[in-house]
Amino acid sequence: MDKKTVGLSDAFKGNAAPKNFTKNPIKGTKYTIAISSAKGGVGKSTFAMNFALALKSTGSKVGILDADIYGPSLPKMMSINEKPKSEDGKSLVPINQYGIQCMSIGFLVDEETPMIWRGPMVTSAIKTFSQKVLWNDLDFIIVDMPPGTGDTQLTFSQEIKVDGVIIVSTPQEIALLDVKRGINMFDKLKVPILGLVDNMSFFQSDDGEKHNIFGEGGVEKVAVDYKKKFLGKIPIDIDLRVSADTGKPLFEKNPQHNISKIFLEIAKKIKVSFL
Amino acid sequence: MDKKTVGLSDAFKGNAAPKNFTKNPIKGTKYTIAISSAKGGVGKSTFAMNFALALKSTGSKVGILDADIYGPSLPKMMSINEKPKSEDGKSLVPINQYGIQCMSIGFLVDEETPMIWRGPMVTSAIKTFSQKVLWNDLDFIIVDMPPGTGDTQLTFSQEIKVDGVIIVSTPQEIALLDVKRGINMFDKLKVPILGLVDNMSFFQSDDGEKHNIFGEGGVEKVAVDYKKKFLGKIPIDIDLRVSADTGKPLFEKNPQHNISKIFLEIAKKIKVSFL
Questions:
Q1: Do the chains contact at B211 and A181, CB–CB below 8 Å?
Q2: Which of B5, B87, B108 sits opposite A7 (nearest CB)?
Q3: Is this complex scored with an ipTM above 0.90?
């Protein structure tokens, strides 16, 4: 047999070498913080909404940009059912909800309409959202990123000044692989990683027993291995899920909830790093 | 105020109208079944691996094509650490594991390397995988789709003969939104939907109590509303997660496990529809 093993360059043509780009801040905002996970379904959007509200509660002006074009969650999680207004037919006025300025592709289409778009359309949407939304004097804009390491991540990393990214993951081995890929991507694209969050850490049943449904300690271990900050653990909590499903994030509904306090702790840690 | 509300067409240029494409079957395979969810993190890959093994146990020849370029799970879930061979430097020989022919972008790169690729590169990879892999006389090829409704979904739907798609979701409201978008996409692109699976339905603690961590009954309701077949419920199960994390799917490890039996039931239902 003289079969050869095949490397990536043999199988595909192309080159992902970084070029030089001008990174512009998002107009009307001071700091851009991306919430990322590389993997979907780890509670990133729930984290983003509650984190934004926690940050607001510390006295900052906060906005959320839902950058998940294929699976926008913001309209449902924040109970927003209106279309954004425009003065000039080009720019968009963000929608205020719970004291947060919000923008999502979900404001522009019916919630059950899929955005069947190839990459360049996604890039164009992201540019519109970062350049043509009239964000009003924000301290922080929280960007809820889609899963993956593709067009949206590249556009943000190359053309937008992202001040830091928070990586959220469940402790499941298979999710951690995506976290490692995410860390390597942001390191390569020179976007600072503010820290890692272990989400859906464990589930506590009424008898007090802790169930490590998705495994244990994995995110913290990755943080140590990659020399990143570990920001905290958020357990699986039915109140947290129900509040997201019913359009009022837990932090807004009950800032005294144990889980809300964890969000506040994380928000304070992050805020301090920008002062 | 004479502000206007803004619709999608005002905000973005572009058109997703379907064109006519020639749909080719994947060479060396009889039927192509895609496993999709629109949303990530709902257990789609775990489903795909166990479903493939269950289908194999009924006497079919089965392959798995991992179409998740940004977050390949197959190498880890099936314990594959080798690079595929090639006779001619162009085509790729799938790797056999547990009696399943396997292909993944993860075979070609180190597992922690992110594929920082824009859409057209992803499309090119998908075409390579569907046209240049030497699948050997398969009855079924199971395609593990990435989340979203973008390049990969479009390429499969437009250029590859997909015989049916199974949609997997957790019962969480916010995940169901993505399911509805997914159904609308496949309906629009005229890909038959074989049915819906409710994954991570509930968690049963040792005292026998069922915890509806992600809500209850949502997937079945969507199936009824959209007139799609409901294929079954798979509870949250730590054995299932651990087996995925440790590289030997539960169905391979223990085909007599309660969860394995559910996979077998679903596999039989699907197989019957192709006889």
A1: no
A2: B108
A3: no
